[in-house]
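Our preliminary data section would be incomplete without showing what the modeling component actually yields. Below, a chain of 205 amino acids is followed by its predicted structure, encoded as C-alpha cells that our downstream tools consume directly.
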Amino acid sequence: MLLAGIDIGTLTCRLLVAEVNPPGEFKVVDADRKILRLGEGVDQHKRLSQAAMDRVVATLKDWKEKTKKYPLNAAVVVATSAVRESDNRREFLARIAQETGWEVEVLTGDEEARRTLLGIRFGLPPTIKDFLGLDIGGGSTECILAQEGKPSAVISLDLGVVRLLERVFRQDPPTAPEIHKAEAVIDQELVNVSKAFGPMPRIPL
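Predicted structure:
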C-alpha cells in the first residue's frame, strides 16, 4: 500500500510518501521538508497571516503535483498547533481544499500526542515499553508517558520554539535576561507535566 502523509506544522511542513506493508513495515519512497513559519504571529494575534498561508498553500500545490506520479492508495494531511489556535483556520482549510483537493484534519493536542506515541513506539525496540516521549514543535510540546507500551498520561503544552521566540526573544544572540526569562517560561509549563503525570519512575526519555 502506497501512502502519503503531510504534516502542516507551526514552523515546518513535512511530506512523506511510503510503501507500507503488514505488520507496519514501511519503505520511504519520497520525502520533503520546508520551514515555512505558518504560526508566525498566531500566539499574539490568533490569526494566520496572509503571507504565511500563501507560503504553505504554494508548497502544498507543489507537493500535490509531485505526488501525482505515485499510485497512492491514500493521502493523509494533518495540521497542528498554529491552525487549531487560529480564528481564521476555516478560511485557510477551505483554500487548501479548493487549490489542492486535500481535506485537512486539524489534530487536537491530545490526538497529536497519541499519534506521536505511535511514531515513537514504531522506532523503539519492542523490549522498551516504558518511556517518556517529548515532541517539541513550533507551537506546542506533546508529552507522553507510556507504560507497558500504552499511554498512561498525555499532555499538550502551549510551548514551542516559535511561540517561545515570539514571546521572549528580541535580540540575536539572545541576552542573558532573555535566556533567564525563557527558562522561567519553560519551568512554569513543566509544572503542568508534574501535575498531570504525578510521581514518575526512572524510565528512558
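Strands lie at 2-8, 12-21, 25-35, 74-79, 104-106, 131-136, 141-147, 150-157. Residues 55 and 136 are 22 Å apart (CA to CA). Preliminary results of this kind motivate Aim 1 of the renewal.
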